[in-house]
Design a protein that fits this description.
The complex is a heterodimer. Chain A is mostly helical. Chain A has one domain. In chain A, 79% of the residues lie in helices and 0% in strands. Chain A has 11 helices and no strands. The radius of gyration of chain A is 22 Å and the shape is globular. Chain B is an all-alpha fold. Chain B has one domain. Chain B has 1 helix and no strands. The chains are: A mainly alpha, B mainly alpha. At the A-B interface, helix 2, helix 6 and helix 10 of A face helix 1 of B.
């Protein structure tokens, strides 16, 4: 595993360079916005990566909360399985009822509804298999911290695109405001973890993360539900994009996903090491002779 | 073009800044491990 990290690091660096070249040189120039539209190749992949990391934080936090009690763990497993089955059933029901079919937002496919539940359940059980209870807490810290970094990129690159295109840096539009709230929730999560020394901190943080994750679908679907100034989705929302632009966007997302994976790997190792050191220090303090404590 | 370059530079500044904080935390932790080993 130690040898894999530098090799993956080099591959990711090469992919990021290629993605940057693609974004600046290969992607066609947008007719109305011009070159400033190329910010999109960093802004959108960063947002998707942040959402993915917050979603993993949500699953890891739920696992930390429920797996400490075998009874709750069993119930949670059944809830996840039921959720997966229900999304498949819902897709069939929507197909059979024409009124429901009409109510479906433009661009939402039945296949995506049917597959969402099983994919979420799959990731849940994969994390359950790969991480112990304590490790899922370490994973939650890792994904929250790296997610905040990516969300910061979104909040910085967004206004830098808006200024030349909209003529303003910021507007209190639903998409923008909900993204800022999401960032604030996860920053407060990290502040809680950093400055609270209570034994209950991981439980409180996990509960905060579960509620914080509720903001992610609100951010994502806000441009479908509300009338916003933010551009409509180019994928899956009834929008369209030049295939060459789509390829560059996906290459950039892949590059940022690989980068996020490596950063999370480093941060996770650091967290586990930190916990081992803290345990050793606590043991040492217990074993010290009484005179030394004074 | 200025906004484009500023956005790309800011993105990498944020990522590199975070990587530096990780490296600093690693080195501090290593120092702590060395201190523990000395004891």
């Amino acid at each position: 595993m130690k040898k894999a990290f530098p090799i993956l690091g080099l591959l990711t660096a090469a992919l990021l360079s290629y993605a940057l070249y693609d974004a600046l040189m290969v992607a066609p120039k947008e007719q109305t916005m011009g070159d400033v539209q190329r910010i999109f190749y960093y802004h959108v992949p960063s947002a998707w990566t942040a959402f993915l990391l917050f979603f993993l934080n949500f699953l890891a936090s739920i696992q930390y909360l429920v797996r400490r009690d075998p009874k709750n763990d069993k119930v949670a497993n059944w809830v996840v399985i039921t959720f997966a089955v229900l999304t498949c059933v819902a897709a069939f029901v929507i197909k059979l009822v024409p009124d429901l079919m009409k109510a479906l937002p433009e661009g939402v496919e039945l296949s995506s509804i049917a597959t969402t539940g099983p994919i979420i359940a799959g990731i849940y059980f994969l994390l359950r298999k790969l991480f112990s209870v304590e490790d899922s807490d370490a994973l939650a810290v890792t994904t929250a911290e790296v997610g905040v970094v990516f969300c910061t990129v979104v909040l910085v690159t967004g206004p830098l695109w808006a200024r030349p295109v909209w003529g303003i840096w910021w507007t209190w539009d639903v998409r923008l405001t909900s993204t800022l709230v999401l960032w604030l929730i996860y920053v407060s999560y990290l502040v809680l973890r950093r400055f609270s020394s209570s034994g209950q901190t991981p439980v409180l943080a996990a509960a905060l993360a579960v509620f914080g994750a509720l903001d992610v679908p609100l951010v994502y679907f806000s441009i479908w539900i509300f009338r916003t100034q933010h551009p409509q989705p180019v994928i899956g929302g009834g929008g369209s994009i030049d295939p060459r632009m789509l390829r560059v966007l996906l290459v950039n997302w892949l590059a940022f996903l690989c980068f996020a994976f490596l950063v999370c790997w480093s941060r996770y190792r650091l967290e586990r090491l930190k916990r081992q050191v803290e345990e050793t220090q606590a043991l040492e303090a217990l074993l010290e002779p009484r005179g030394a404590v004074r | 073009m200025t906004y484009l370059y500023v956005a790309y530079a800011a993105t990498w500044a944020i990522h590199v800044g975070y990587l530096i904080t990780l490296a600093v935390r690693y080195s501090r932790l290593k120092q702590e491990i060395n201190d523990l080993n000395k004891k």
